[in-house]
Every structure is written in C-alpha cells, then in structure tokens.
Amino acid sequence: xxxxxxxxxxxxxxxxxxxxxxxxxxxxxxxxxxxxxxxxxxxxxxxxxxxxxxxxxxxxxxxxxxxxxxxxxxxxx
Length: 77
What we know:
The protein is mainly α. Helix content is 45%, strand content 0%. Helix 1 packs across helix 2 (24-31).
C-alpha cells in the first residue's frame, strides 16, 4: 500500500533526513545536490524535486483539479 504525502509532510521528511545526516551540507552531499537547494526546499522557495524525493522513497506528481466559480460549479475550458 502506498502513502501519499502533502508538500508539508514531504518537507518534514526532508527536515528529518537533514537532522539524521548531521546537517544540510551532509544531507546535500548524500543526495548529490547543493546545500542551498536543500535550504530553499526547506524554506519553501523551491519545490522538492526528484533528486531529493526519490532517495526518500517518493516520486513527485503534479495534479490539477477543476476550478470552481463563485456558484460552486466547474468552469469549462
């Protein structure tokens, strides 16, 4: 059974990984990314991409949901 995570839950998983690695620099080295990228993801300036999510056991997927107008009905494209 697979469990999906919200962006905030993924960010928390990254925080835990950073702590377990001993800091952002060590975690970045482990994932093969820059420490700045780790920092940007944790601060919400960048989305967590595959280079981080896959080693953590997750694949990022973007979804789009219908926009509702003020009457609660879906807008047609």
